[in-house]
Fold:
Amino acid sequence: MSSRVEILNDGGYRSDGRRQYELRDITIDLSPRGTADGSAMITHGLTEVMVDVFGPREAKLRGQTLHDRALLTVEVGIVPFSTGERRKRNRGDKRILELAATIKQTFEPIVQTNLYPRSEISIFVSVLQQDGGLLPASINATTLALLTAGIPMTDYVTAITCGVHSTAPLLDLTTLEENDLPHLTVASLPRTFKVTLVAMETRLHVERVSECMKIAGEAGKVLHQEMKRAVEARTKRLVQAMDMAPRIGGVGGGVDRDVDMDEDNQT
Amino acid sequence: MVEITIRKRPREDAAVTQRKFFKKTARGKVIKVLRERYLRDDVSCGIQRCGLCTSDVEATLPPLGTQDHKTLLFGHYVVPDTNVFLAQMDLMESPLFTTPIILLQTVMEEVRHRSLPLFNRLKALVNADDKRVWVFYNEYRSETAVVREEGESPNDRNDRGIRKATAWYNTHISLARPPVRNQSKPPVTTAVLLTDDVANRQRAEAEGIKAISVRRYIEGLKESNQLLDLLSAMGEDIEPTRAAAPRHALYPEYLPSATVLAGIKASQLHQGHFNANQYNYLEGSVNVPAFEKPVLLLGRENMNRAINGDIVAVEVFPESEWKAPGDEVVDQETMLKNDDAEDSEEDERDDDAAAKAEERRIVQAQNAKRLAAEKQPTGRIVGMVKRNWRSYVCHIDRTSLQSSNPTSLSQQTVFATPVSRLLPRIRLRTRQAPTLIGQKILVTIDRWDNTSRYPEGHFVRALGKVESKEAEQESLLLEFDVPFRPFGKAILDCLPKEGDKWVVPPKSDDNPEWKDRTDLRDLLICSIDPPGCQDIDDALHARPLPNGNIEAGVHIADVSRFVLADTPMDSEAASRGTTVYLVDKRIDMLPELLGTNLCSLRPHVERLAFSVIWELSPEAEIVGVRFMKSVIASKEAFTYEAAQLRKDDPNMNDDLTKSIRLLNSLAIKLKEGRMKAGALNLASPEVKIHLDSAESSDPVDVEQKQLLETNSLVEEFMLLANISVARKIQETFPQTAVLRRHMPPPPVNFDKLKDVLLKRKGLSVDVSSSANLAASLDKCIDPSEPAFNTLVRIMATRCMLSAEYFCSGSVGRDTFGHYGLASPIYTHFTSPIRRYADVLAHRQLAAAISYSPLHPSLHSKSYVERVLDTVNRRHRMAQMASRASVEFYVGLALKARGKAGVVTEDAFVIRTFRNGINVFVSKLGIEGLVMFKREIQFDAENYCVTVPNPDGSGRTSTISVFDKVKVQIEVEKDPNTQRGKVKMTLLEPVNSSTL
Structure:
């Protein structure tokens, strides 16, 4: 019986054997897919999200173009088999639209859209499996996909959920924990330590909020390291590949910028 | 700053680190659930000074284990399996069981899954100071985690996990303490598997793990004798846990309503109200017209989901199966404390099998050698005619909670224990359980399926903290269904427009107010009431007449002048029925302006009244009686005490005092006459609460109400007025007069009391008529014990029926009588401010003297019947509410009085049970149970129990009904429900605190 699970037992273990401040296993796959300009697949435990980025390119709908910056469009698709209970969600589903809007708002101030006036950057988020932390996983995957697409951003965006059990904060909640605990999702910029999104759907005691924010910010730094490692590894592979084929053409531009940004981070 | 890390989970062994299972939802949908599990190497073993493990919590296991065992000669820890905790929790909790325990996570989770109350006890055990228990999270340690294999039952998987963890401990200990060269090998400490499952033991032995049964292990301990007592019998050969079986019916289905109705018509079934037994939750009864004694229902199945107050259809068993009611106190909370709120699929589990067996034993115990005379018709409920469910005031049972974490938002199934002992626990689903603990809450029952042991309900609202006055007051009003909303605008609009400025207009012939009203303003009228009374509805006068007779008058507030028929105020008053008096609050039937001002016969102001004036002979025989609407001006409002003082003061000789003396002399004669006719002098335990001040309303003390001569003065004249009015309205309206009657009690009601009195005191009571009863009650005296007579009267009162209002056309003329007052006819006329029946009587009397025409509704028998039904119910509820309010304050006063809330008082035994006695503390007016945990001898025939003396001398004391004992009374809080309970312990003749 699922309700019979202790969220945090007396030994300090959560129901899946983690401790309070331990994040779930994260795997990152940045290999290119199809015609997408940038793509990333990330798993947080059993939550699996795939993001493809197209653009900057000419906007599909002329009428929507903005004269001074690029248009950011986000579309989210959740496959019916992503949860235990099969459930088909339409594209017009309010939850999905809200999720897409949240991702869009999160990235609008970070992506340097002003470099690409009258163009469009499309982000397609596909949720393959869900086990809590859907929004943070989507945000993290979008960050990585934008990076691999070579779209300039001011910083990484890392997101994590933080819940509170009695007075103890817990990081990176599973579905089981999300259902039981008040929690908030924090998306932060790890280098500047700024926060770009806080989402909360449950009631959380006001005294707990600042602690949660702080811990989520710290967790963001840890995530940043993990994501950076993956991006570095990919870049290294690309550079090696380029070394082997010494024809440096127009394609390299995006990659260079990618590397630039990375070095920038290390300093 | 805390360290934040990412746990890595090797993807290759998804078999170990992921768990996939299917789950069926309540709607029958199957869901696939996938969970992951992070295995770690830093789970501590809990052995002190272990070289391999570190732990941020202090390790609790001594490095060498325990060596105090006769057969296990090496140092050891025990690793009990799940069934040990499920079956032998008492043993594990015993302070004599000192072996260090390794509690595996697998075991803990299984216990949690099977029974939350047991799990909570287990958690308390882990945290107990005198216990050495270490919780080892074996499922999270990489070496000890097990995965369920194909075809393996969950139970086998858990057993395997327990064995694996035990084996791991053994290797871990040897690794942590490698033998030092050149030294003799230190004795190896071992983890011993403690299990009663034979198959599990065999497998363990095969794997080289030491395993032992609980009994064998205990036998080897030092205090084995005492510990063996605690060993539960069911632990002997336990079967492996049954897989979840499909839900099966726990109760028989109800018959379809058509069949029930046909059965009742054919007198095969009987219909009646279900009454639960407050001492034994496994027993109930139904009063049916076909039998003299109520039909007894024994056991859950026969009570078949009935809740106190339901109208049920009963099938009566053949006479050979009739049984006698139980003589044991059975408390459902203690019996079923290990029951699980979320039992849905797993009813009939092993752990509650014990409770069920106990229940069966209790039900069957009744059968054994009881007197045939005590046997009652016995039956079972086969159908439900009408449910009478309402909202119940409850507390959340703390032990049924899964998580008391205040931030938890998860839905939990918990037990709500109703305040009333007559109701079963209610199963409740709520998301706010942790915040509701310690609060009074309102719960409604939704349904009770025959597959569910408990009714299911839902949370309505919280009333507030337990023991806060507001919450207690509100819960009391709700519990007794007292309407307490403030009066609405439509009702207040019915009041006179002048408000409190309203006065009787100056006398003139053309004023409608004075039409047909007699001017009695010159009479020396006074009122006598309890202190602090604001709603004065009666006043009196008396004066000698020139012919030697005496004129006496009773003047009642003319409420029907203000409360006109068929107005919103009238219908509200009809639905409220009566004013309810709580210790610290009064819930009015009529708006305050009327009750305490315009109608109230306050002194020195002119008021409208309805007067009854008699001409009485000096011997207090009625020569003539007149009824009239009048205007009076009361000269004085006395309290009982003040009137008494004035009467007794020889220096006072004014006319008012003389008229009081005159009234008094008449009252004495009236009373004499009434007693001669056979009126009963009944007694009920009445106490008075002294409040500190009106604002704080903290009770300071409790004392018994004192009755003065003036009390009886007022009472006699009110009775006289009521009887006179009853005669008049019955004459005028033989079909619809509002009357009150008290049916003579069926003689069987007294059987028990007669028997007890005869056997214990050699006294007899004659119940053939009220006069005989009154006479024989007078003889029930114990010269050494003045309070004995009162006690007998109280007990006799309880054998009687309650008085009721009725419509004269609805019952036979021969049943009009009032048994208690020994009057052939009676009504209520004298308190129209606080009783609605009196308002109706006023209207009928006004019509009877042709003052005003009778409202058509009062000509309708069905209308009067319907109104009186509500009034009767409200009246009963109001009495219970005020009694409950007094009880609550007595509890508070007890707390305030003795130090630490402990008070010692004299008490009388009024009933004996197989496992306890019921005592009555007359000084406080409360009743309580003294329960004995240990075996006592119970003699049902002689109504006594024999209790061993706790000093071990082997002497015994016999306590029987009517014995005077000393009890210690304290108010203790039930730890689970947070409700205050009066707990009584016997001090004399024996101290029962250890029994």
User: Anything to note?
Assistant: The two ends of chain B are 56 Å apart (CA to CA). Chain B touches chain A through 46 residues (CB under 8 Å).
